[in-house]
Amino acid sequence: MDLNGSQMVVEALRKENVSVVFGYPGGAIMNVYDEVYKQDYFEHILTRHEQAAIHAADGYARASGDVGVAFVTSGPGFTNAVTGLATAYIDSIPMVVISGQVPISMIGTDAFQEIDAVGISRPCVKHNYLVKHVKDLPRILKEAFYIARSGRPGPVHIDLPKDVTAQVGKFEYPDTISIRTYKPTYKGNARQIKKAIDAIEKSKRPVLYIGGGAVNANAAAEVREFAEITGVPAVETLMARGVMGDDNPLLLGMLGMHGSYCANMSMSEADLMIAFGARFDDRVTGKLSEFGKHAKIIHVDIDPSSIGKIVKIDYPIVGDLKNIVSEMIPLAKEKINPTQYESWRKLLKRYDEIHPLGYKDTPTVIKPQWVIQRIGELLGEKAIITTDVGQHQMWAAQFYPFDRPRQFITSGGLGTMGFGFPAAIGVKKAIQDKISINITGDGSILMNIQELMTAYESKVPVINIILNNGYLGMVRQWQTFFYDKRYSSTDLSGAQPDFVKLAESFGGRGFRVETKAAFDEALDEAVKSNSVCMIDVNVDRLEDVLPMVPAGGSLYNMILEHKD
Amino acid sequence: MRRVLSVIVTNEHGVLSRISGLFAGRGYNIDSLTVAPIPETDFSRLTIVTSGNENVLEQIVKQLHKLIPTYKVIESGEFVEKEMALVKIPLNEDFNGLDAMLKAYNGVIANSGTNFIVVMVADNANRIDDFLKAIKKYNPTDMVRSGSVAMDV
Predict the structure, then answer these.
(1) φ and ψ at A272, to 5 degrees?
(2) Radius of gyration of chain B measured on its C-alpha atoms
(3) C or N terminus of chain A, fewer CB within 10 Å?
């Protein structure tokens, strides 16, 4: 079948069962958009900024587990997309982004809207391509999807010159792909697995340290089963929230900079860490020389370069987490008696009783943590939560009752403000029978506020809940603790938009909330409205996220009390 | 610690910048880097001389492997390793002893002009260092040195 480059893109997306593409047209990608117009295989959602298109595709991918897809044009269209690519790359999110490029004959001439896109994207994608000839395009499209979703997932970028989108060639879409130089390891080494089980059997104070890889590998059921049959208590990273389910008695909560006292103490006192798809991020480890000082470490990861990158690993196992945990389960059943860690679990429970995760509620002012808990009480498993970045993100991770993976969607590695709202649009497109809630701050929401228009036009009901404290709250918190309260450029209270009117001017619904009762009403009405909403909640201005491990501090030295 | 890596990659657009970008982006050292296609294949071979401790070296190898076009990273074992240097010496110098020196360093006279000769040596890196020091007594006007090429044996 002979097709031009643009038709090939559309055909490939159909063959990959892509149902929605996010994007923004422009000169260099116009031929592709012309084919998008003519087809009805997939829906196209016009975002109002390219960064938002990538975040929306990212949210779609995180919620569904499928590959997210976005189109952008050359030059500024592409450079706007870079933050989205970097966000997806560091969190290992499968995505294919196709950017327009000036015609091949003009590459390198500083043409209108020309930029070296593959040069810019190289460090923030899993792989990228500049398509030089239409004959390569079907293979490149197939490879891009394959690379994005296989091994350690990640974004793949295809830079597509305008003349290639018009060239005609044979469209033979390969059924399978085999790249000689790219063979991810899926099966774990049997001897290593056995050694790891022996190490667990011999340990007295083991902890499961669960990372985002458990989500990417769809291994939550196996990880839960493994925890239950062994009786090993578990901690979750930010990226793994929901894997164990918050009502699971073996879950000690989130660990790291804003982890629970109990979770962090378990890591500090463990004699064995069982890291499942976690990458030892500095926000998790704190001071490295003190991290897991008494522990041997088992590390299961699909990416060999993750193993041993930060800490020395005693039992490395490379492969797919779902496969490996499935192989560990029968061996563990044979060897490990879940009662053997009873005194360890009791000790950890005691830690949780001494310093439980909590806050002091008051009747006079709304506490941000209360808002999160309340959303949880009212919507619970019916909602999928996205967040932006800052205090609200940490409170959401701490206080929302997550019961499954892919229910909490947040920019973990890059910490991208402006992620939450467009991601929530992608989430809603992926999982239509759930309520898409973006928990955000008065700082973050303004970073992609124009997406109100996207949500309105495309009829994607997303509820933005702004925990409005009139500050860039997390930076303000650091200034309180470490900069002697010099609030340099963090007080936003003097210059804020009217979020209600703002929402309304984009066709959405706005609610201002100053009492707890008003919050319940607003949320109820927002859910019923089935339109894009902003709920602007006035919360306690000076609330801090606690506990806190100061950057570079050790996990067992937590700030537990508010500093007045 | 100085280490030599021989990296086989698919010979495709932008692959060299992927490799050098990886080193730059992650703060690894490159002492020298040479690259050329492998005859009758669609692969290229890079010889990278780098330095770092064991952990850094392990990461370099893993990160190189992680690049999609990387086929093989040969890191250990015995290498035959050679560098090349070209040195331009004015004809009005006294060449007494030059022949013996060239002989000692696998050198030849590669070219000669009306005002100069060019000598070429190929040897391992520290021998090239020595040679470039020794040749100074002929007051060379130009010296060019290549990166390493290495073959595992």
Answers:
(1) -150, 125
(2) 18
(3) C
Q: Which residues contact A133 (CB under 8 A, 6 or more apart)?
A: A164, A167, A169
Q: What is the pLDDT of residue A181?
A: 96
Q: Is B3 helix (H, G, I), strand (E, B) or coil?
A: strand
Residues of A whose CB is below 8 A from B62: 304-305, 309
Cβ of A181 within 8 Å of Cβ of B71? The answer is yes
Please say if A474 is a catalytic residue.
Answer: yes
Task: Look up the ipTM and state it.
Answer: 0.92
Catalytic residue selected from A16, A50, A269, A451: A50
Q: State the best of A158, A164, A177, A182 to mutate against chain B, taking most chain B CBs within 10 Å.
A: A182
Report pLDDT for A11: 98
The pLDDT confidence band at residue B76, using thresholds 50, 70 and 90, is: confident
CA distance B57 to A346: 43
For residues B124 and B149, is the Cβ–Cβ distance under 8 A? Answer: no
Residue A90 to residue A357: CA distance in whole angstroms: 28
Contact B25 A123 (CB under 8 A): yes
Contact status, residue A59 vs residue A51, Cβ threshold 8 Å: no
Q: Looking at chain B, which residue has its C-alpha nearest residue A309?
A: B59
Preceding omega of A330 cis (within 30 degrees of 0):
no
Compute the Cα dihedral for A536, A539, A545, A547 and give only its sign. negative
The answer to whether residue A113 is catalytic is yes
What's the rounded Cα separation, in Å, for the pair A369 and A439?
Answer: 11
Return d(Cα A166, Cα B144) in angstroms, integer: 47
The per-residue pLDDT of chain A, averaged, comes to: 97
CB–CB contact A180 B10 (8 Å): yes
Tell me how far apart the alpha carbons of residues A115 and A101 are, in angstroms, rounded to a whole number: 8
> Above 70 in pLDDT, residue A309?
yes
Distance CA A411, CA A417 (A): 8
Q: One of A35, A78, A145, A162 is an active-site residue; which one?
A: A162
* Per-residue pLDDT reduced to its tens digit, B131-146: 999 999 999 999 999 9
d(CA B113, CA A71): 59
d(CA A122, CA A154): 12
- A50 is annotated as an active-site residue: yes
- Of the partner residues B9, B13, B58, the one whose CB lies closest to the CB of residue A132: B13
Give the separation between CA A454 and CA A448, rounded to whole angstroms: 11
Among residues A38, A39, A43, A112, which one is catalytic?
Answer: A112
- Residue A564: pLDDT above 90? no
Chain B residues in contact with A181 by the CB 8 A cut-off are 9-10, 68-71
Q: Nearest by CB to A304, which of B9, B21, B65?
A: B65
Quote helix, strand, coil % in chain A, to nearest 5: 45, 20, 40
CB contacts of B17 in chain A (<8 Å) are: 119, 122
CB contact under 8 A, B13 and A309: no
Residue B95, number of CB atoms within 10 A of its CB: 12
Q: What is the pLDDT of residues A411-453, one digit of tens each?
A: 999 999 999 999 999 999 999 999 999 999 999 999 999 999 9
User: What are the φ/ψ torsions at residue B83 (nearest 5 degrees)?
Assistant: -120, 165
Q: Closest chain A residue to B22 measured between Cα atoms?
A: A123
The answer to whether residue B41 scores a pLDDT higher than 80 is: yes
Per-residue pLDDT reduced to its tens digit, A356-397: 999 999 999 999 999 999 999 999 999 999 999 999 999 999
